[in-house]
Amino acid sequence: MSLNTLSLKQAKEGLSKKKFSSIELVNSCLSEIKERKNLNAFITVCVKEALEEAKEADRRIKDEENFPLLGIPISLKDIYLTKGIRTTAASRVLDNYIPQYSATVVKKLKEAGGIIIGKTNCDAWAHGSSGENSDFGPTKNPWDEEYVPGGSSSGSAVSVAANMSLASTGTDTGGSIRLPASFCNVVGLKPTYGRVSRYGIIAMASSLDSIGHFTKNVEDSALMLSVTAGKDPNDATMPDKKVDDYENYLNKGVKDLKIGIPKEYFSEGLDKRIKEKIERSINLLEARGAIAEYISLPHTEYAIACYYIIQPAEVSSNLARYDGIRYGNDRSSFADEAKRRIMFGTYVLSSGYYEAYYKRAMQVRTLIKKDFDDAFKKVDVVITPVSPTPPWKLGEKTSDPLAMYLSDIYTVTANLAGIPGISIPMGLIDNLPAGIQILGPHFSEGRLFQVGKAVEESGL
Predict the structure, then answer these.
(1) Is 152 noted as a catalytic residue in this protein?
(2) What pLDDT was estimated at residue 135?
(3) Which of 12, 28, 77, 154 does the annotation list as catalytic?
(4) Where are the beta strands (DSSP E) in 206-311?
(5) Per the CB 3.0–4.6 Å rule, which of 142, 181, 291, 441 could disulfide with 376?
(6) Nearest 10 degrees: Cα torsion 237, 302, 403, 321
(7) Which of 153, 165, 176, 423 is catalytic?
């Protein structure tokens, strides 16, 4: 087995038992990055820094220092600020921006012993569902390079799926972790809003952004969240809520757990092959003792319209700071998708339209949150598709923004409600991956791991 194909747990055990060194592990990932450069998963590869940190990690391992990620290579979506390492948000506006400090999550990963192997490609400013909106060129799906890997955290998902890193960070504003996880056959977690610090991560839509990650399995996802979760005084949206021991949930099983199946997510527009796979997954969970029942989330039909009013409004506000004066290039460097969202967001916030659009969308958002609150009084988790379709071909939807936006139809609700969601692989459709989405109440990530592990063990 090549070292770069190991899970976090396997790598951790192998390093602690001196079966291989961190330098060997890092070099294995660097070789894969070079070998599969055509996937365009990375904007910046930190060769020198990673090897220096690996050398130091080997010394620390020799002295039997025990840290959860010591000596393990991890990649970062290129909207995480990294002190001394270029951070571009995949936009030419920040082509040469070198941050003066690192994001809280980056600090936590490094304090846990993790090695930053590079910064991954993404849709510029995290605006996109396909990975095609990067100013540095599109990322390609490792299962078939003619297809999209999903976005906006495209490079992060690909880096894990193609064994270029053992785990990767992403952001999820409307599905930007869960969709690429589904399309690339990896596990993608969007935590509860406020579970992981947003400090030092370039904002897209501040009331929707969630900070999560990609891993090769559910157990690794639990380990990553154990490292990244927890209150940060630099992020005022974070409650002072205790971080669970997530690994304790992995072997609990699903006996007597109540699963809600929202009828609104299984209507017209869903590819029947995805529907069949999800139904099979639910049947396997029932065979393990879970109890499934149909539920209703009545305001689901308004979610995508609600999201695409609130999100561009916040985008237009957040991108206003990139004026080319303090840092970055001037606004003429913004690409088409950023310009589209700035104009749309400015319009819905303008005098005479604020109440008709933005205020009404916020009221609908409250109703969507209430739908979930009511549902979780009856069921423990909700299971839905991640995407209405399998991955599509590169270029297929680039000329039709509305069709692209509709790919988020099953994922935006979790961001509007602030709840956690996870995408778990459930097999292939025409040799391309598909994922199943598990949603839970606020701060129920442990329960998502519990159910996700059972799905994983079902051998889909």
Answers:
(1) yes
(2) 97
(3) 77
(4) 210-215, 258-262, 291-295
(5) 441
(6) -30
(7) 176
- Say whether pLDDT at 199 is over 70: yes
Kindly report the CATH number that applies to the domain delimited by 3-457: 3.90.1300.10
- Tell me which of 152, 182, 221, 387 is the catalytic residue: 152
Active site residue 77: yes
Residue 418 makes CB contacts below 8 A (sequence gap 6+) with: 192, 193, 194, 369, 442
pLDDT of residue 308: 94
Q: Domain residues of the chain, as ranges?
A: 3-457
Structure confidence by residue, pLDDT tens digits, 93-140: 999 999 999 999 999 999 999 999 999 999 999 999 999 999 999 999
> What is d(CA 94, CA 258) in angstroms, rounded to the nearest whole number?
47
The rounded percent of the chain whose pLDDT value lies above 70 is 99
| pLDDT the model gives residue 460 | 61
* Burial label, 236 (beta-carbon count in 10 A; 0-12, 13-18, 19+): exposed
Check pLDDT > 90 for residue 279.
yes
How far, CA to CA in Å, does 314 sit from each of 88, 345, 347, 364, 446? 20, 7, 12, 16, 30
- Whether residue 399 lies in the annotated active site: no
Bridge partners of residue 76, in order along the sequence? 119
